């Protein structure tokens, strides 16, 4: 999703030969606002804290961190939550090498226990909701989340972007769908059909843990193991699932990263690049689906900075090795970043993720 939405869109415009002039037709549709706040590279770092999930190392100052870091946030906003209340559903760090020809994607567990500045200890995804309250909107939500992530990982950010999941569906549909290989049987808790063939939710999510409870008489959408073509609604539904996966949110993170690489392949395929109508639909959908902060650089500037980055040069990495590292505090279950994950972020700070991946090959997620 993100690689296709930003990095591949960057490559697209360079490849089609229109350059800056071509993209400027679409750039105006991108909502460009100040998102990064204290997490921006040129801002002083936020105060450091001492809790279980905080780094136990001293990251280099932002000016000494080679490469570039982009924070990508997906929100699954319901009606009325566009300006306040939505939690960050997907939190991904994209680290681009100093040379600009390699990149790594790292998904942060949204249930990671963190201290949110000014709001106490909570799950990481709660930072977006907290910042969006009181008139903060999406920009305030992102800024507080980004500051929390910088505090957690030591990484300063050069750009940031938000997309809601409806925007992801539009982009997938614009490119004619994507090909994905389902690695584990995945049952949807969101989409199903009743006995009259009407679409309805097949499960109730029971608070406070949101345990899924099957609704009698409703047949859920099921994604069986194997390779197939996904329409936009299927891709969106597939990457939202976590409740019934054996590895829960880690499985969802893996599927989201696999989708973004598949989307990147599709966007740069001849079927899109060689079809002016498909290309126009894709660039229009990308432009209309993003809220972006280039930290003083325009979308066009970023496009040309990343023009040498191709989909096959992006490596996907797990946190916590894709295994649960949970702890319960005051009746609430949290994830905690393990020591190797802290090493991963230290490697990102020093632009040495290639060495980390060679040392921990089982932390690399294979493309779908």
UniProtKB/TrEMBL annotation:
Question: Pfam families annotated for this entry?
Answer: LytR_cpsA_psr (PF03816)
Could you tell me which residue ranges the Cell envelope-related transcriptional attenuator domain spans? 87-267
Q: Where is this region: Disordered?
A: 40-65
What family does the entry list? Belongs to the LytR/CpsA/Psr (LCP) family.
Q: Which NCBIfam families match?
A: lytR_cpsA_psr (TIGR00350)
What's the protein name? LCP family protein
Q: Which organism is it from?
A: Dactylosporangium maewongense
What are the leading ranks of the lineage? Bacteria, Bacillati, Actinomycetota, Actinomycetes, Micromonosporales
């Amino acid at each position: 999703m993100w690689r296709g939405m930003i990095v591949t869109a960057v490559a697209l415009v360079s490849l089609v030969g229109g350059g800056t002039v071509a993209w400027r037709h679409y750039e105006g549709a991108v909502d460009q606002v100040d998102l990064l706040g204290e997490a921006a590279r040129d801002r002083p770092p936020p105060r450091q804290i001492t809790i279980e999930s905080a780094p136990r190392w001293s990251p280099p100052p932002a000016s000494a961190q080679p490469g570039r870091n982009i924070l990508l946030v997906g929100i699954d906003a319901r009606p009325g939550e566009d300006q306040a209340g939505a939690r960050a559903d997907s939190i991904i760090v994209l680290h681009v090498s100093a040379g600009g020809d390699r990149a790594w994607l790292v998904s942060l567990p949204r249930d990671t226990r963190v201290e949110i500045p000014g709001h106490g200890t909570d799950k990481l995804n709660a930072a977006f909701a907290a910042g969006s309250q009181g008139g903060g909107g999406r920009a305030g939500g992102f800024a507080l989340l980004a500051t929390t992530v910088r505090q957690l990982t030591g990484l300063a950010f050069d750009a940031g972007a938000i997309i809601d999941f409806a925007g992801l569906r539009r982009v997938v549909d614009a490119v004619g769908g994507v090909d994905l290989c389902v690695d584990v049987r995945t049952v949807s808790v969101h989409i199903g059909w009743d006995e009259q063939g009407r679409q309805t939710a097949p499960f109730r999510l029971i608070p406070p843990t949101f345990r899924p409870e099957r609704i009698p008489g409703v047949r859920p959408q099921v994604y069986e193991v194997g390779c197939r073509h996904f329409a936009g609604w299927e891709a969106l539904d597939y990457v939202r699932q976590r409740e019934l996966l054996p590895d829960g949110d880690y499985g969802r993170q893996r599927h989201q990263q696999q989708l973004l690489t598949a989307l990147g392949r599709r966007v740069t395929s001849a079927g899109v690049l060689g079809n002016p109508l498909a290309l126009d639909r894709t660039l229009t959908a990308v432009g209309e689906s993003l809220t972006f902060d280039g930290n003083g650089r325009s979308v066009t500037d970023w496009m040309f900075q990343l023009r040498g980055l191709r989909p096959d040069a992006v490596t996907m990495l797990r946190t916590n090795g894709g295994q649960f590292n949970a702890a319960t505090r005051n009746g609430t279950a949290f994830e905690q970043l393990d020591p190797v994950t802290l090493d991963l972020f230290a490697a990102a700070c020093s632009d040495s993720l290639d060495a980390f991946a060679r040392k921990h090959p089982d932390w690399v997620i294979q493309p779908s």
